[in-house]
Design goal:
Layout lengths: L2 H26 L5 H37 L1 H12 L2
Helix pairs in contact: 1-2
Length: 85
Amino acid sequence: MEIPEIRTWVIFYLLSFVVLLVAIFITTRNDGQRWISLMLVIVVVGVNSFLLISELRRHQSKKALMRVISNPDEAVNDRGSSRYR
């Protein structure tokens, strides 16, 4: 991971932490607004899960591309052999 990407992730997770702290604060108050804190927690967990899955997919596709670039003869042979089956 490159340095600019790491900075973006750090800022994102700090903002997520602040949102979770606000959700805890809302939960501790007895105003009947627990649904707001629950919604905030669900949104933060959902966004984090979505970004984690997309980052894993991006890493997997980059790894496959690097494998194809590093072994071009093997990739050509694999495509050629499937043509005659």
